[in-house]
């Protein structure tokens, strides 16, 4: 079974409180999502493999560590996932970015795939799927289905706020996927929103409604 980790570092908790507040405007919301994602990326990358390289410091020759192994692809689930790309890119600037477009039918709450554009070598990459809200789990399950269909196997899912219902559904369907979240909230309401959550992450990031 993959990992399930709530990344409750004090800085992350503090910043999450800022964006949960309904009075937080679009500019600050976007900036703070970026900061939280960067802080999370630091720890999500903790198990990236290293290899030895020989280098020369100004003082002596030495053996030192450098990243080895799989290259990274960040895959935001459109549209809210886009808000989490730059935070990871700040720490892993060579990552490629794929996009998966999902929308949620507002009546049935069922997710639908409408766009998939991925790096050609996606099957050889360590993939970070990002979406701020893990609500029913429907979109993340479909996005990961879409990735696996194209040969991807090494997948981590990173969100900001998760509902227990979504965590359960995602782990049941994709038990190999590690899940990282900044908070595990209470429940989903009848409209599919996470309670207490932070509202519609896409609307809050992009200033729409
Ligand atoms: N998507 C959101 O943006 N917010 C929720 O609370 C649930 C799904």
TrEMBL record:
Pathway: Pyrimidine metabolism; UMP biosynthesis via salvage pathway; UMP from uracil: step 1/1. Its cofactor is Mg(2+). 5-phospho-alpha-D-ribose 1-diphosphate binds at residues 79, 104, 131-139, 200. The keyword Cell division does not apply. It catalyses: UMP + diphosphate = 5-phospho-alpha-D-ribose 1-diphosphate + uracil. Residues 6-208 form the Phosphoribosyltransferase domain. Keywords: Allosteric enzyme, Glycosyltransferase, GTP-binding, Magnesium, Nucleotide-binding, Transferase. Uracil binds at residues 194, 199-201. Allosterically activated by GTP. It comes from the Bacteria. Catalyzes the conversion of uracil and 5-phospho-alpha-D-ribose 1-diphosphate (PRPP) to UMP and diphosphate. Belongs to the UPRTase family. HAMAP family: Upp_B. This is Uracil phosphoribosyltransferase. It comes from Secundilactobacillus hailunensis. The lineage of its organism: Bacteria, Bacillati, Bacillota, Bacilli, Lactobacillales.
């Amino acid at each position: 079974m993959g990992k399930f980790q709530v990344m409750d570092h004090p800085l992350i908790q503090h910043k999450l409180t800022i964006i949960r507040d309904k009075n937080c405007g679009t500019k600050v919301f976007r900036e703070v999502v970026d900061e939280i994602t960067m802080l999370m990326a630091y720890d999500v990358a903790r198990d990236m493999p290293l290899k030895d390289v020989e280098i020369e410091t100004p003082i002596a020759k030495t053996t030192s560590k450098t990243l080895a192994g799989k290259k990274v692809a960040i895959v935001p689930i459109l549209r809210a996932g886009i808000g989490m790309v730059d935070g990871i890119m700040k720490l892993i600037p060579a990552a490629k970015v794929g996009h998966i477009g999902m929308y949620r039918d507002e009546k049935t709450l069922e997710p639908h795939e409408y766009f998939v554009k991925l790096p050609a070598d996606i099957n050889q990459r360590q993939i970070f799927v990002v979406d701020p809200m893990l609500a029913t789990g429907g979109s993340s399950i479909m996005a990961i289905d879409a990735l696996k269909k194209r040969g991807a196997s090494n997948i981590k899912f990173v969100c900001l706020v998760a509902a227990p219902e979504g965590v359960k559904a995602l782990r049941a369907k994709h038990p190999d996927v590690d899940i990282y979240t900044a908070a595990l909230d209470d429940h989903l309401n009848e409209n599919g929103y996470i309670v207490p959550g932070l509202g519609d992450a896409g609307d809050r990031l992009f200033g729409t409604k």
